[in-house]
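Lecture 7 notes. Example A: sequence first, then its structure tokens.
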Amino acid sequence: MENSGHKILTSGKIDDEELWGHFRALGVGSVSGYKLWCHRHGLSTDLEKRSEQRLAEIELFDSLLPVVDPDLGKDHDPFRVKLLARIFRGELQDEPLADVPSRVRKLYRALEGDEEAQRALGRLVLHAEKYSRFFRPMPIFKRWGHSLANTCIGALEQLARHHRDWCRPVEEWRPEGNKQRFQFSSLARHLLARYEVPLVMDSAWFQGNSPEGHRQQEGFKHVGFGQNIRTAGVPMAITKRMAHLFLQENNRHSTLIQSLRRVQVEALGGNMHIAWAVAGSPLGRSFENEDFWRTVVHFFVNNHPMLSQTYVDPIYDYIRHQKYEPQRVIGADGQMVEGAPPQPSFGMKGRSADKLLRQVDDWHAELSGLENMPLKTWEPCGLGELCYREVDAEMGRQVEWTIRELVTSAQLGVEGRTMHHCVGSYADRCMSGEKSIWSMRIVDLEAEEPEPMHVLTIAVDPRRRTVTESRGKYNLKPFDNKRVGKKRRANGLYLRFLRESARILRLWMDKEGLAHG
């Protein structure tokens, strides 16, 4: 049987290799399939066609193929895109959703009342879903712990709030690199910068819808559109020297405040070590009472290196307690009431380092007796304890490490006296839930009289789930090699356990999902 000059086989196929090649180019495998394809696209169903007709059919077929975007990210999920699009159409109000769509819905609801910002968020989210790695929710700044605000997805909400200032369409953005942090940096600059912005200013977008976050976001735009950091509304006196140093800051793990503290110290003549110590202290977390704390920074710079940088935190704690922390005193009716700080007029003018250190030591001694004062108690913060047994390699005996929360002022007093530091001053902050204090100890289970040894005191911010401080005896750190005078007061066995404490602390942090702060 023949048709149009081509031999038709019983299977409905033909033996013409040229025509067969044309069928393969169109993705069909039989005469009937070819004719059906031609019919659906308004073409002649004849088998006999000129070469230009067949070429036109191939071009039509190619034009109908879905376009594959070479820039599509590996995390792109078409099904997730459909879910997200429904959220931005106002659907899926109460339906249970997977983790990422649920987070996006929360951001969308946070912008209720601002339809333009909601639309901007939709553009950001749908575009980022295609090209970025933002949809692996992980904390960007470890010191701020696990929260939606501290993720790239959460930061998109803040970018959406500034949609009126976008200088380029989000649809033109393509990510740089594979890491979330670098991708977000390029997106923020694509939208809100025409000039170079230091990496440390990215922290502005990961503080949620907070006053400090808004202030830093305005500062980001201020610098990004060509203005000077000195006029960005930062509540700190920024000199020309500081501004010059700040523009060279490129530590992506630092926040804006930490970076400004570092350049503040360096501009005053301090070296890198004292600069990092000040930035790593509570002074690197806030600009509160900046006029006064600037004088304290001057003090640290003027007395370094004779004053070791490891004294920065103890001195800060002492000054804060004396000048700013209200004291609980017995009122006229015999009840405990809140009184004034011990020294509200405390100042740094004319204060010598030796005298201040003696005052800090005296304060520590005073705190050691806090267990004899009216007892303060508070509820546990909710984190779990650690009990970990292992064979000590050097002793060849089984030991037990424990990390337990301290929940009374008496326990803090004992810890402070044993460890020779100022943890006893944290009672009020523990009562308010601002801090949680933990004690790491080790006991030799095979000793004749097992006696726990205090190794490390740990401060936790339970709200951010971050470890903000960890100190051994005399404020030593696990790998501190500088405070030789202090180390002489601690025996070799303790110092070895102190070095091991970093490993045990990491075990506990991993178990409880904590980050360093």
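Example B, a different protein, same format:
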Amino acid sequence: MEKLLLHTCCAPCSVSVIDFFKEKFELFLFFYNPNIHPYKEYEQRLKSFKEYVEGLGYKYIIGKYDYKDYFFNVSKDIENRCVFCYQLRLNETAMMAKELKINNFTTTMIYSIYQNHSLIKKIGEVLSKEYYLNFVYYDLRNRYFEDKKKIVELDLYRQKYCGCIFSEIERYEGVKR
């Protein structure tokens, strides 16, 4: 069975994506999210992720929480921060896949109804050429509402915003991106 490095943003998104790919690939999970703020939120999401995947028996890697690099780069163009955020996390995933000699990579962001799928797919395809890997894309948004009950039953921590401090503020301001 081919291997797939799955970038994971949180436990709830991991549920459906792991379920979708587990019969197609040998999965290795990569939690890399320096965009998540404040730090307590990051810790809560990481804790929930670990508890969930350890219960399933999956191998995982925790990437560096490099919030300084994230903020330094995002501050250059706050309005387009999502582009940088996708690039940062997918690039780190592609580099990790290359290092681990795993030819396929993807992200749990392909499950979220709140993410820009065309941009994620485009960035993944560019990186796949750069690193000579395969970016595996499926539009899994249709599973979002189907799996909500399962996520509630698993009692996983469910966050109320994307992860960055800007999205948390926009949530209270009612801004949709």
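Note on Example B: The mean pLDDT is 92. DSSP finds eight helices and five strands in the chain.
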